[in-house]
Amino acid sequence: MNSLTAVSKAELIEAIRNCGSDNEEYFGYPVKEDGLFLQQDPEEFASFVEYLVTKCPPSELSCEVGIAAGGNTKFVRDYYDVKKTIIVDIGLHPQHFNWKRIKPQVKTEFVLEVIDDSHSANVRKQLLPYAGQIDYAFVDGDHTYKGLRQDIFLMKEVLKPGAIMTLHDTAAVEDCHNVYLDLLKSKDFELQANFISRFGISVWKFVGTKNVTSNMFNRRFGWGNL
Ligand SMILES: C[S@@+](CC[C@H](N)C(=O)[O-])C[C@H]1O[C@@H](n2cnc3c(N)ncnc32)[C@H](O)[C@@H]1O
Fold it and tell me: Which pLDDT value is given to residue 83?
C-alpha cells in the first residue's frame, strides 16, 4: 500500500510548485534556496507521481540515473514507497551540491551511490551485484541518443522482470524521442503510460528475462536491439 491515498492531483501540483524549480523562467515556478531544484513540469510530474502511487506496487529496490540536485528522488519517495535506492550521477550539474542537503530528507535506504559516468565500466561493475533486482528505475541522465541507449542497456541488466522503467524528456528532446520510438519496437519493454504536458515522462514495463547481459557494442556505442 502506498502513502498517497488522500492526496489529489491539484495538491500534488501545488506541492511541486512549493518545492521550487531549478530555473523560474524555464520551468515556470520559483527557485527556492532551501528547495528541491526540480526540473519538472508540475502537471506532468504530478500525473506521473499519482500514477506510481495508484497503479504501481511499492518498490523494494530502485535505481535513479541522473539526479542533478536529487529533488525528484526526494519528491517521488515522499509519496511512493521505495524501500531501497541506488543513485548514479556524474556529479557535474551546477545544482548537484544540493544533494548533500537533500539526501538525508529522502524516505528510503540508500544502498549504493555512484558519482561517475553511467557509461563507465566502474558504474556497471558496481551495479551488476543487483542484476535482476531493480523494480523501479528513473533514467534522466545523458540525453543523447547513444547515451540514453547505453543507459537502457545497463538498466536491462539490473531490472527485475515486471519492473517499471521511466524515461524523462521523451517528447521534448529529439534524441530521447528517437529512443522512445526504438523502445516501442522492443520486445523487452511495453509502454504503460505517457505523460506529455511539456517534456514527456514515459513509463515502461520490463517484460524481458532476468539475466540480460549487454555486449560490447551495446555498452560502447549503444548499438543493438533495446
Ligand atoms: C536533466 S538532469 C536530471 C534531473 C533530475 N532527474 C530531476 O528530475 O530533477 C540530468 C542529470 O544527469 C547527469 N548526467 C548526465 N550525463 C551523465 C552520465 N553519462 N552519467 C551519469 N550522470 C549523467 C547530469 O549531471 C545531471 O545531474
Answer: 98
Nearest of 152, 153, 87 to residue 115 by alpha carbon: 87
- Low-confidence spans in the chain with pLDDT less than 50: none
Which residue, among 73, 11, 70, 69, has the nearest Cα to 42 in the 3D structure?
11
pLDDT (0 to 100) of residue 6: 67
Q: Separation of 155 CA from ligand 1 center, angstroms?
A: 15
Domain residue limits, the chain = 41-221
3-class DSSP state for residue 206? strand
Give the binding-site residues of ligand 1, using a 6 Å CB cut-off.
38-40, 66-68, 71-72, 88-90, 92-93, 96, 117-119, 140-142, 147
Burial degree of 78 (CB within 10 A; 0-12, 13-18, 19+): middle
Q: What is the pTM of this model?
A: 0.96
CATH of domain 41-221: 3.40.50.150
Cβ–Cβ under 8 Å, residues 50 and 78: no
